[in-house]
Structures
1.
Amino acid sequence: MSQPALNGVSGPGKVLTLDSMNPNVKRVDYAVRGPLVQRAVQIEKELEQGVKKPFTEVIKANIGDAHAMGQKPITFFRQVLALCSYPDLLEDDKFPEDAKKRARRILGACGGQSIGAYSASQGIECIRQDVARYIERRDGGIASNPDTIYLSTGASDAIVTMLKLLVSGAGRDRTGVMIPIPQYPLYSAALADLGAVQVNYYLDEDRCWSLDVKELRRSLHAAREHCSPRVLCIINPGNPTGQVQNRQCIEDVIRFAKEEHLFLMADEVYQDNVYAEGCEFHSFKKVLFEMGPEYSSTVEMASFHSTSKCYMGECGFRGGYMEVINMDPEVKAQLIKLVSVRLCPPVPGQALLDLVVNPPQPDEPSYTSFMKERTAVLAALAEKARLTQEIFNAVPGITCNPVQGAMYTFPCITLPQKAIAKAKEEGQIADAFYCMRLLEEEGICLVPGSGFGQREGTFHFRMTILPPTEKLKIVLQKIREFHLRFTQEFS
Amino acid sequence: MSENGVVPRAKVLTIDTMNPTVKNVEYAVRGPIVARAVELERELSEGMKKPFAEVIKANIGDAHAMGQQPITFFRQVLALCSYPELLNDSTFPDDAKSRARRILQSCGGNSMGSYSASQGIDSVRQDVARYIERRDGGVPCDPNNVYLTTGASDGIMTMLKLLVCGEGMTRTGVMISIPQYPLYSAALAELGAVQINYYLNEEKCWSLDISELQRALDEARNHCNPRALCIINPGNPTGQVQSRECIEDVIRFAAKEGLFLMADEVYQDNVYAEGCQFHSFKKVLFEMGPEYSDTVELASFHSTSKCYMGECGFRGGYMEIINMDDDVKAQLTKLVSVRLCPPVPGQALMDLVVNPPQPGEPSYDNFIKERSATLSALAEKAKLTEQILNTVEGISCNPVQGAMYSFPRIIIPEKAVKEATDKGQQPDMFYCMKMLEETGICLVPGSGFGQKDGTYHFRMTILPPRDKLQILLNKVQEFHQKFTQHYS
């Protein structure tokens, strides 16, 4: 007789069911690839099979994937990657010398001169050194120690690893992690998975999504009633909101973290994506050190970067790193041990990161072409940011903060009461209902604001600014038309 | 103490405030002995004098690091995918170009730089399904049951995470082989699941005994809720290739006892010994008929890191899920979406592994030549290793039937055991440390994998090139004799 039958369960039930699986995993949500996107994929399949729709293609403006939207890779990067993949090409005079030089250096740092060898778990040493030098150049000379650099499988990997380290305690002592609302839902997903307490602080929509230390304080004090807040996460430039925090704000956050004894996590993957006049990226590391040793020798911080965004858009390579400041040496040893279990981040991604931090220099053959490509990508993004903001703000019922940086717009949409009621009837949040309609009617896939978090009673959606300019204009036009129609229908 | 007499504030993140389960994690393959090996390498490169000229890292299953060459065809396709301009280059064969085009077409914007679907590129999963069908003599494989992963480790961890629930006596218990590949113990420690050890039988070539499975299970039921059974075949570190009958017995056992089966099959092409053959769990399951194939929940894992490819750095892998509850599958799909997707170069590589050059294609001959050369070299080194180690008094080595390692038993003299224990070290760690310092050879002590109480082992890869391996084995022999002498 089988074990389940012996236990009195009628018929053999499965071992792994919704009831017997990890409960934390059930609480995980990730809207960027959630139900709306699944429906979008389904519709794509239907279109392929010839099903008639009011549109001829699905536009996936839900995810920050630049290449999928037609952005071209940086030629130099791909040349080096090809050379690393198939070193026979080092004999091929089609490839410029600077590409070959970097390929040789990377291969020289790999076991058996092959990118197929595992690397050190913390990442290839010379790449960590290059990352450290990049950080130093970026931060006006402030020293970076390669030993505090950890290469990772995209920034997501490092963020999850740090959160994992930080989570402890039970009940009132359980680790609380402060995250912005709206946030990039990796954070909420990771916290759910880890069973940590999510502590929300609201960004100020009326002031261009700026961060208020008063709000941080409010949130922290409320949280202290029921958990042990130990971490403060900030995304700058922001996702989904696109705000680029000013230097004063960053100083205030650092001061707050020190006063309140919080571990700072600075997600800076959009550091090159800054568009608006008067805005500038200030790295947390730089500001921290410029605030003097009282802060720079005490505040514990991890900052994150990636090869997925900026001007590279190499999402598929899963390249990234984190720099860890003022970490307790015993904890550092634990961190090293933890990352060793997964052996190493993907070596092609590590190689790519090396090129990002060590791009062609002015005296090198590929420099001109590299700069041209980089500039073109960033200029196109800046133009599209501006265009998006302009067009949305001309639609009655849509208000859009300036897209100061990153790759998204997160406009506030006014939804008629009737629509909100209808959504409720169907068991949906109003902005999800709205977005689903938009998908079915126009083939445009966005992510509802509820997937990122928003103030009660407000609704938003996140759209990427990545489609090529002409296509983007069409998309914006269609959304405008849809919004007016939708508002009309539910008036 | 700071200048004004104030005691500096404790850090936010300390050994006491950090995640306690992480503290329980150990991973011997890259543990303290390897850290020391890296240190020694540094010292050597700085010109320090040592009793050896180089450190030989025979601790990790990294073929390329030990000089194995990549498969030319695979790297050609990867180069074409990385830099599609090369599609115009006549030095690349047509079959490489056609695969590259196919892969690129399934990528967003025809670029490997796009995120893929979280479950992995559709056409690659289809190719994986066809590979599985061919491998398993036609037993059907649904591509929707295939999940591409960041190495097999990723898939294994994801499945274990899904399986862990409950508290105290209902806490999920997971049965793992002793000796095991320490990803399993590390994952279980991190997840706070209960590790249930079942011992492989060293006297019978590390075979698996159902009565031992039963013993372990019955005992575990006193203190946890055993729900999963993990098996590594071909075995790591032990190298045994389980017989078909054994696999049937395990499946029967899992069915009877209500256990989720996890079959780690990353070494499926690494089978060397006469009379041994790889039998996939999936195939055997289906050949046992619907009573089993309709009910037993199974996940099997494969990787691009081992076999004849050895492409560890690409982090390519997949898992095939059989008979998973639909609701749980939806949860799994949701869970993997948070990390977006596995690395696309690794997915592309996996596509080539499951869809290699066919007879009649330009690259076929060369591909088969390279593949055969690598596998036969491994087979020879497996034999050599077993042979040489068995001539050493105090070392006995089971046949290396498959995988990439030998896991010989070593006799450590009482005096050495005592000295180790006094130092707070495992005796085989003590032994391996001494070997490292005296010969530059880095192995992993058996205690890192688990072993019967009072026995000692080490794991050594068979990966160095034959001539170097021979030297290595001779040095191990010399060291063992000296060590035994010294502590007699």
2.
Amino acid sequence: MASFKPTKIQVYPKLGEKVTQDTLYWKNYKAPVQIKEFGAVTNIDFSPVAPHNYAVTAFTRIHIYGPFSQEPVKSFTRFKDTAYCGRFRSDGQLLVAGCEDSVVRLFDVSGKVALRMFKGHTKAVRVTDFTSDRYHILTGSDDYTCRLWDIPNSTELTSYQEHTDYIRCGITSKLNRDLFITGSYDHTLKLFDARVNKSVMTMDHGQPVESLLLYPSEGLLVSAGGRYVKVWDLLKGGQPLVSLKNHHKTVTCLCLSSNGQRLLSASLDRHVKVYNTTNYKVVHNFDYAASILSLGLAPDDESIVVGMTNGILSIKHRKSSEETKEISGQQKRRPAYRVFVKGKNYVPKQDDYLVSKPVKQHLAKYDKQLKRFNVSKALDTALETWTRFRKPEITVAVIKELDRRGTLKNALAGRDERGLSQLLNFLVGNLVDPRFAPVLVPATEMILDIYQSVIGQSPVVDVQLQRLQDLLEREIGYQQDLLEVLGMLDTMAKMNTSPLTPHPPT
Amino acid sequence: MAADGGSSSLGLPCVFSPKSRQYLALCAQDGRLRIWNTDSKTLHQEYVPSAHLSATCTCIAWGPCRTVKEGPQRKKRKSEAGQPEERADLLAMGTAAGSVLIYSTAKGALHCTLDGGHSGGVNSVQWHPEDSLLYSGSADTHIIEWDLQTGKTRCKWKADRAAVTSLCVSPDGKLLLSAGHIIKMWDLETKEIYRKFTGHSTAVRTLRFATTRPPDSNGLYFLSGAEHDRLLSVWQVREDGNDKNSVVSFTLTDEPQHIDLSTSTSKEEAVRLAVVCKDGQLHLFEHFLNGPCKKPLSPSCSVQMAGTQDSPVPVPLLAAALGTDTGTVLLAYGNHLQPVMERVEINTAERHICLTRDVQTTLSLSMETAVSKVKTPIVNAKSRVLVPGLPGHQAPIKGTSQGSEKRKKGTDTKEMSIEERLGEIDLSTVSSVKGAPKGTPSLQTDNFAVLLVQGLESSDAGILNKVFQTRKDAVIKKTVSRLPLPAVLPLVEEITKRLQGHPFTAVLMVRWLKAVLMHHTSYLSSLPDLVTQLGVLYHMIESRVRMFHKLTKLHGKLYLLMTQVATSDSSNTVTDVDHTAKLVYEEESSDEDEASGDEGLPDDNSDNWEEEEVMEETMEQDMEGQADEEEEDQDSRTESKANGEEDMEHENESEEE
């Protein structure tokens, strides 16, 4: 018995955005939790120690949120003016923050009152950070200076006045206790060594620098300013490696995904872009409601925290793998494992005569009908609403198969008003699709031939036909335009030294 | 002399000009200083400090009356008008930012700014009665003596451990009272403490000398009122220094907000006192200051004011000034933005008086009433109004002292200009639709080019959709021609992506593509890798137009059929009534049917709505056309429908067989 050959559904290339591993990964977050802060959220810093609380600096307060709570677990409100840049020390015990009133405050994470106050700057301090030896603090201020302070004595160690404009970002090396980098509105990045009293390297970003980031290896430095994100090779003496311009407004914030494979940049244009750090191509894009000022990524990308100008803090948590599994389990209860292995694990002995059971062929509904030569019904099943709209390629394939058998005419004929309008509706939707047109155009002609006599009797059908005519008219106009464009392209290719190879269109 | 209006740094400052009480200076919630003419009851001047929102005015004091000739900087026009009497001119305003603004009502502009002195907000300002000196007390605990000739600090000293909340200069100009919680009397010659008076537990807000006698005669008295304190204390400065306690106290119903008094020069003359409390009541006192009195004194008369509504609401009094004759009091009441001033005869025989006045509660209405009240004010030529938005303090605009009428006019013209602008915009869009012989407004296309570049750079679908939905050819051309070269190739890529969709939207993209090819021909053809760059596009178009012949044929076929139907229909309408009636009925159901079909159409493009819209349009047109043809009564519809269906079924069956 010859087995029935099921209809072959042609696979067409998908139009639109490609689904990559990255889009799947970055889309796997829950709906964002939004928290309204008192003012623009200027900085977000994750604690380096578990449970990875994060400090959110907004207006005159610093709130510390736990990884899952939506209420701050701790607040520091003892600021006289706008607070800036609340950052944790590498042991997560201390927090340092600058302030508009030029005083730098050091807090114990469990306390409330500042442990130390560092006074000396004359203008707002926008940058604070701990050095890797934990005993010193780096600050950068609008008075153009950056300074190093000793925590135990709360004294100033060194002051560097090399920048010629506001210092708005800075970062300390996590490997070397003496190295730190600052970025300023004078367009430069400067690498300082605390052992000498001047900068050891200067790089020109070309735009006011808003944010800095060091790769964990500390060989590469990323700077953001203006609409550019630039990557510098520090080991080659500050050679620029890459310049990225994927935002249309100022980039305000940079972040590295935990495994160092992806770089995130946030901008005033309300986007967060994810770059692949091997080829620096944008692999994903998040949209937010307002201009973004700060961005934080929890270890292992467990959550993405974004602070915006309108004071809203948006937190997206990663969907846990169990959660996704649970949902699928609820949807469909599968038979037990035993059912499938039953009798299968029997190992035949040497002399056994093996009789193979005929494999049951699972056929699709339309194939079942085709097998029974119910051509009209086969087409009906292929025209079911879901298939018609979601998988037009199946319908097209069935029509093609019918055409091949030479029974398409029979299948199409003998339809009532509803069936015909359904068919016409499908044609209106897909006739001009260049993938389906070769099959559908002859079919349409056939339909017109068959139903010629009844045209004008049913308004439903008439309206569909009117739509079809309208569509064709437009498509023809459109294709005429396209032909003109082809002509233009041909000319252009001729003008170019190497002409286009394809033949002129038929 | 010390009768310049009571300044209160509590709440909103509100002061009558000294002597003639011609003006009321008021700093309202919106941070503007308004000077009202108490005679004509109209707005005399309005001044908006450039920092009126950040550095609000905390206190006001009128400068001492001077004959106009004394003012060296001022213009003399007023004196020519034949008013030789002394006029109050300068106003000192202390601000929360620590600066003091001196405003001249004669000039209608800021006279000078005194800043750089205080690090905290100014709580009180007082003028020296004779010399051109000004004293300001601030929250930074210091008092500053300003020299107005130079505009510089003459002397600055720490007055208290807490904020200095109130100041008062003695009528002879030799002593200065300052207060935080403790009242201190300073000798202005040496700037040393002369006396200290303790007794208030809260910050003293009001200080006022009650007599003009010299201190050595045991006849110098002053008044003090403190925050949350319902007593007004009178202190005597005694020669023997035995002045630990207040000698007299007046009881009030609430914290004093505005005080006016007529000072006594001798023991035989009573001190008259008008105190407006925070609760909006006015209390009048009359007392001979001649030594201690143990019992607190209650007012000789209390005045309240109520509205005329069905359920009367109290109308708060803002300030009160005693008239020259004993019976009259000048009252200011209502809200700070629109106070009402009135001279009232008070019958002091009654202990409690309630006045009823019709005061508009809503602001806009009250402005209206102000307009109706205007009767050509007396002085107007030199007064000017300052508005925010213009840089600096001294930014006068057209005077409005001729009354609010003129202001209204001004706003009218402004509205007109906006209307005109809108009209212009409309015109330009219309012209561009018509093919724009004038040329489309460059603004919009410029924006579009910028938007397009931004959208391409950040691949923002929202922005791109917005740009690509333009239908105007002129706009498309201009946008493309303004596009910077590096954005051309990304645009071509984006267009290629969008060309694959439904013809309804793709037609628009062809326009863009043509525009790109036309405007950037030289750039594109100079590209060395043009073939690879445009290869995808080329192949895409080629595959699409491959079916051109067949589709055209099909269209011809369909067109023929449809025209046949149309002609038969039109002939039927004349002869066969039933047939056309069927069409009318079915349309309604078919409409719904189709709508549901449309929703489910596969989304080729994000701009799907557009095609639907277009379809609906065509549908509507069709319906209208048909409806025009038909002039049918409704009765025959049901029958005809049934007939039609039967017909259909018959035919179908026959075909199947």
3.
Amino acid sequence: MGLPDAPGDLSSEVEVDAFRRLFPLRFYERHLTESIRPDARPLGRARDTTIALGAVASADGSALAKIGSTTMLAAIKMEVMTPSLELLDEGCIAIDFHMPPICSPIVRPGRPAEAVPVVSKQLSDTISRHGHYMLTYGSSGMINLKELSLVSGKAAWMAYLDIYCLDADGALFDAALLSAVAAFSHSPDLLENCPCLAVQIPAVSLNDDGKIVVVSEENGRKLDEDSVNKEKRKLTLKSIPFSLTCILHKNYILADPTAEEESIMETLVTVVLDSASQLVSLYKPGGPVLAYTSAVQDCVALTRQRVKELQKILDEANSGIEVD
Amino acid sequence: MEAERIDGRTANQLRPLACSHNILNRAHGSASWSQGDTKVLAAVYGPKAGTKKNENPEKACIEIIWKPKTGQIGKLEKEYEMILKRTLQSICVLTINPNTTTSVIVQVVNDDGAVSFMVKNLSHNSVVSGGFGLLYKDNQGSNPSTPNFKKDGGFILPPPCAALVDAGIPLKHLAVAICCCLTESEYVMLDPTKLEEQKMKAFAYLVFPNSILSVLPEGALKVKGEPMEHGIITSVTQGAMSVDNYLNCLERGRAASTKMSAFLRRSLQPQIPGDSSKAE
């Protein structure tokens, strides 16, 4: 345990647990003065992160991401649709974030958790381009929607991205973003400068009625001749966003909080940086502690480090799939 | 590199602000705020007994209801409600009335850009003025750590703050909200209208605490060498920008927030009777 003056016998162990429940803030502050947290992590370190690609076999792209205990499952299904009249040569990405009751005792069926619309909106801001203002300046989102277009004005891909939270233990947005990025990047050949994401875009062809149909794999050779999109089977991801949530408490900055830490110390800051070091988002939704410039810069520095770690983990996961 | 704005403002100029209090007579506190063509109305009811299910009963709870001008309530409104709730919770002194709920209802009357921010200023205002048992401090002597610090914060997170001020809910300080946007030529502009919003590369919405007029010496109020009003209460960004641009926006935002604070202080001024206590 982190308390240096706690003797090892049973009676004081019981006391420590009771103390943790009754006075959680003091319990944590006692640890913070020693620059450590109850799970023995130093303040700036994130929990162990793993990514498993291809978790859902029937989906066009999927990934299971775990940061500590927080688990998120992301899956992508592609469907052909007619593009909207205003954006004729663009596809669409529909992002849905779910928190089923399995993830946490606070979430009950029928009543969506408070975090759901917030994480959902943050994800859609980060992943897909939206709003008129993005049109002119190119996407600040990860995916260029023009690549999802098949026949301009008539057909385009709609990608349904569903993210399920299986275990909510703090830092939900970080894990959700990581699983979404991993699901999109389920790719056999990951080039260094231009990460290609091959969500497996199905082969399609134009049938006699002028409709686009998915050509099934059994037709073998015929596939490539007829398919409308035989050249465009991969999505390019421009710059991959990664995020880190930090808690600000007095003078301390704790990276990657657990659910317990989030409930006690309420000031969260989420920084999303992409691999080109652009700040995609700095989200601080109120909270009792004010963020001064020094705190903002510290959070950004911690996030930069985390981006490198996550990039490495993602590359390893992708190359693992390749070998198979 | 001076970008020409449609309505002739300079990059750092805010739209004309107008604020009024106590406009709804059933609500415990209310305020209306307009910035150019954007207009928002906020009302405050409370404190009412009891807190919601998952809230901490040892503290007061704030409930926000956001009503857009048109359309149904969706994720966007829920997100605004959450951000506003957290921001206002950091401003109000929650330990004074434990186990109570204060409701803040915000109605967007006209949306011409920068709505979410105005909304904050407004509800703040209505909480502070109006309502029951107001004790106004003297113009000069407001020690921000005193629980009954009501007036003389002049911070006004637009409408909700104004409404909170109007209702007499105790606040630590007020807050001011600013919207900064970044054009494609890396130029920072403040307070965009809806038309300008559509052409911007990135935005940052920032909320700062109000500047304090205090009898305490300057040094006592600084945290880590920066005056208290430089801290950010809330920040929401959209679109990608470099970290330096963001810090640049913070600087501009701070400068503008001092101007807004001054406006708020002035607009609350006539509400206060000459003496300290009101005999109602």
4.
Amino acid sequence: MLKQKSTRTNRFTAATNRHQRVYVENGNTNLPSEYGSRLNFYSKAPPAEITIEEFETYALDRLQVLKTLETASLRNKHGPEFKKQVDQALEKHLPLKSNLSQSPNLLEERRKDHISHFVLRLAYCRSEDLRAWFLRQECALFKYRFEQESLEEKKNFVAGLNLSWSILDQSEKKEILDKLAACTVWKAGKTAQAAREMVHNETYFKVDFEKVPDLINRRAVYIAQGKAYVPMSEQVSIVMDEFRATLSTALEATSKALPRMEEDERLKPILLNVEKQYIGKDYGVSTTSGGSVRASDVDQLVRQHAPLCMSNMHTSLRADKHLRHGGRMQYGLFLKAIGLSIEEALIFWRTAFTNHTDDKFQKEYSYNIRHNYGLEGRRVSYAAYNCMKIISGNPPSTGDHHGCPFRHFSQGNLESKLYSERLGAVQVNEIMNLVRDRHYQVACTRYFEVTHSQYGEKSKIDTVEHPNQYYEASKRLAKESQDDSGDAMEVDR
Amino acid sequence: MTDKKQISEELKDVDMSIFDDDDDAMEDDINQVDDHLANVHLQTPERPSFQPKFFFTLPSDIYIRYNSFANIDIMKKEIERLQPIKIDIGAVYSVKPKDKKTVNEKVFKPLEKELVFDIDMTDYDEIRTCCSGGDICHKCWEFMTIAIKVIDVSLREDFGFKHLLWVYSGRRGVHCWVSDERARKLDNESRKAIVGFLEIIKGGAEMSRKVKLPHILHPSLTRSLEIVKPYFGSLVLDTQGVLDTPDEWNKVLDFINDTGKNKNNNNTWYHK
């Protein structure tokens, strides 16, 4: 079959000219329509009956995949190593071949994928933390699979979703061509001319801006009068947001229906078992540190055991006698997780904010501190932030000191900071190189090793994923060495 | 301090007049309020149980939360009775306050809330030379004017919002209340996205240069640039004098060179 240069306009452009939406027919007639693509929005529950064994095994297999996805993304966000690890896990536990492969097992694979997703929904809908974790991993999995599909498959799948996006017609596009081009310059190449050509050839969708928060946030698309003009190439973003929104709503609905479902005695133990498998330690809701840290201990404990992000905030707090909201949240929750009780926390913050009057402190800050401990408002005891959240969440702005130093400090400032912590040039350069390659957590782990070198081999810990993990590791090393040496010796850095 | 009082005087009428105790003018006031403020909810008969919540601060710091009123007369009477010194307007919740205690915490959720922007003069501390902290004056207030112009036009042209109310916050900044129905119903993701769209400052206290933009700007930024350009000479160079003293121009140099290299510039500036 010869490959010819197509002189036809693609179907979407043709439809645009006719002011129509495009619905595409599924080419593969061997599979039932709901499994026509290997992608799935999981909007409908699986129709089939399954055995209890399948119920459990499918769930655990999928969980393995989600676990691998989480760990792999923490260590290596985009590289080939990431792909290899995820592919391995998928091959082993949840294979899902594409339509092109013409494999005989397509239906079985898709059925398992469908069922396992729904079982995990039951297992992970119980609490907000569980739902958030599940949502994150499922979105990552969906994105991974979506990006691997061919353009044709993607188009078919999206069309099948009936998301009612309207296509931008040619005349309107002509009017705003320059504006659309200004938004794509970074992709099309440096010249304005190349950008305009790309825009001319690309299909654009006109959607409500609420549907594409990610694109709006990054200012990646042109918007006017509340409508966002999204090119086909950014489709992933729109699909992802739709997927997230659909799943998020479904999880909440499932959690409401859960009590009824658990009346079936066979399901409850399995669901609880699946849950226990893994979501990572959350240092919040079930903190066992028992509230033994006193306000007066904080200075020393933070100096000796806290990671750089927290010690930086502590220093700023002492210097300014104040810390802005982002810092109060990140640092405050960290302190809660190391064992600072609500009473001690109030004392700590009150004495730290020395320039404020009692009255002002009471009005403006004590409510929020109590809120963090679940004593006000929604009465939810918040979990301390993990590294992912700190690195990719609420970035610091003018006057803020929160965030991750390896991510948010300018290179010059980070270097100075490392030198001031008495690191040698070789070590500083090592860490700076990791930061330049955006391996922030690995840099932090290296920082831990370097600052705990007196413990030799024991200083080599797993990659830091949570500031409290860093703190606990540091404390543990100090305690072990204290036990070993037999006398009360705190190592001074 | 005089400047603060002056500004306060000028803007006093904008938000306080709706609480005037003049029965004849009540009709006019309601229409005015209807146009601008959250009270538009009180007028919709379809959902009588959904009312926005008001939070009163009384003298001697008594704070009363989650008040809601069936109509404007009841609200007026309650305000006259309590005489709060501060009133905050909250969201419309899924449950009436008197039922709040009987319902599971998780069901008590905000359904609608105006989109509110808060600009604080202290955010400009790094670039204003006349005041800092709680002080404001006519020199730095111009930054606020520019901010209002930029954000106002973006909310209207980019996002299509129509019902905007800009008010002096009472101390050192302004608030913008967007009360379009579409704005009230926005979820958290969309609100964060709007802020992300408007924001060009990235970086905390440890980052010197916080604005890094590509050569070809997004259309909204091109528009903002045109708004901001005319002020540069008069406000930044003349009034604020950012190149007048070594202390000040060194800050500017920090913006230009963040990597710690090329301190040669410093000497060149000085000689000029």
